[in-house]
Model the fold of this input.
Amino acid sequence: MDFKDYYESLGVSPDADEKVIKKAYQKLAKKYHPDVNPGDKTAEAKFKEISEAYQAISDPEKRRKYDELRQDYQQWKNRGGRGDYDWGRWQASPGGGQRTYTMTPEEFEEMFGGSGGFHGSGDGFSDFFSTLFGGRGHGFGFGGGSAGMRSRAGQDIEVDVQVTLEEAYHGTSRMLRTGEKQIKANIPRGVRTGSKVRLAGQGGPGISGGPAGNLYLNITVSPDTRFTREGDDLKVDLPVDFYRAITGGEVKIRTLGGEVRLKIPPLSQSGKKFRLKGKGMPKLEQPSQFGDLFAELSLVLPSDLSREEINTLQDLARKRGIVE
Done:
């Protein structure tokens, strides 16, 4: 049987107090928890190791016995470690009251802040632990070991997903991997930055027959080079040439839903706004309804005027008293 250094397992010094030991265990348990590492046998083994170590040295009576054994074992090694170490004198007496502590769900939630379910180590702790403290142990089960463990929902998982404005308009999907599982996540029309899409039952596996957790997609919509979004409405710059702004006419506008034609009235000023009803973003809760698109006119001067056209414009300017 091999000696186990429980202080080394938790990464604390032998003189660490109760608070330090508890904090170290919390940190490691969250890192190696089976819900966080589904299917990872290495993480599962590490989780059992730190759970066993915490049980041994978090209880004052067990820790006192373990410390005496640890000191005696180190002295034996320093003397050369000849022969076999005498484990028998440290063995717990049958029925001697050395029982494995069982953590209740309430105690677990107090320790970890209610962060998801908790697996007991159904295979039991090591022979070393059983020799010292009796029984086979079942880790931190609920209600007395794995057989009495309450069913609990699996851990919820959150994933950050970035989409373009056009994807948010039409709806899209992403292939995501959670643990050993790959799923196609559909993202509905109308999502915006800050939207949270819930995929029921796609999170961590349930415990003891409990339901699986949920997968949440935290959505960010990347900025668009043409459109500015305000809620379900969109804004777009509408460049119009000098002649059309004066005489009026039609211009084409490419919206996210396709191309439309807009009638420009004569003598339209720069900064004039046009409202295209229903040409904005689909509404997330009512995707058949849409916001509006607001197009703001900006004048574009022609860069290829002929000398004759320039002379004509100068004559008009003189007649209006703009130039001499």
User: Anything to note?
Assistant: The CA atoms of residues 151 and 208 lie 5 Å apart. The chain has nine helices and eleven strands. The radius of gyration is 35 Å. The chain has three domains: 6-148, 157-221, 227-319.
